[in-house]
UniProtKB/TrEMBL annotation:
Identification of the protein by name: ABC transporter permease
Pfam entry (one): MlaE
Nucleotide-binding as UniProt keyword: no
Keywords from the UniProt entry: Membrane, Transmembrane, Transmembrane helix
Top-rank taxon, per record: Bacteria
Family note: Belongs to the MlaE permease family.
Transmembrane segment boundaries: 107-127, 148-169, 175-193, 239-262, 295-318, 338-356
InterPro entries associated with the record: ABC_MlaE_roteobac (IPR003453), Permease_MalE (IPR030802)
UniProt source species: Campylobacter gastrosuis
Amino acid sequence: MKKIVFSDDKILLNGDLSYKDRQFCVVFADLSRKNSTIDFSSLVSIDYACAILLANFRDKTGAKFINMSEKISLIFALVDDKKIDKSAILKPKRENFFAILGRNFALFWQHFIPLCSFLGEFIINFFKAFLTPKNFRAKELSNYIKDSGINAVFIVLLTSFLIGIVLAYLGSAMLAQFGASIFIVDIMGVLTLREIAPLIGAIVVAGRSASSFAAQIGVMKITEEVDAMKTMGLDPFKFLVLPRVLAMIIALPVVIFLADLVSVFGQMLVSKNILDIGFSEYLGRFKDSIELRHLYVGLVKAPFFGAAIALIGCFRGFEVSQNAQSLGEKTTISVVNAIFAVIAIDSVFAVFFMWYGV
């Protein structure tokens, strides 16, 4: 039986009409018949796409609908209610500066409170671990030292070596203009030990380890391993967070110390090839003019860098919800937050040491 039957003054609809019916779509999209009467008495069902097409046909040609059942009438009533005059839609007002500032501050505060709670929980568990050594996870600690410290040594040393070469090359070109090439040892030595090597090492480790911690814990949340640990009476913080943070606190000073050595070595190569300052002369000048406190300043900041990187990575990992998109977002945010935290901590230490003349 045909679903659309035409007569002189009436169009009869039969059976079940769906937007997938090609004949129906083609006919009513092209039909320009004026003042038609559409009979719904034999129609069993109709989908919303067909109803919208018929409503548009009615508005365009002035057609009349007759013999509609209650169910069909409700469908057309809903379709008619959805017709909105687009010209009446007001454009949203642009937010002013204070509204944007307030929203961003509220968003910052929303994330700052959980972070403080997370930090407080870490401090409590940190002291508990030393008060009860039997609960100390030495095996996991050694594994994380290997993953986050030893495995990161190569990329950190390579980066520090290249940065040391670049800085020494630029410094030598500038000092040579004033005949003060020998002072490159003093300037680059202090700059490398206090700022460059610690920052480069911490930033590289932050990009590598913060994302790793966030992804590992995030996957455990998605697969409900964290919930399973809680069900078995195990503390996820003690097993997942504490070993990672302690490993970063222990490993990062060693990594930064090696970065110091390699960066200075890169500067020695540039000085020998460009400024004709031999290794023995460079080391002699370095020993006489660079105080040991500059090395200590760089190493003192390393544990704080490591703690910040690990805490942010773990914190973002626990924020992951039950979907892959959230995992990618939190992993990316963890890297950005960790790098920002490293730079902020370094700035605080720089002001503090300058204030006290260290």
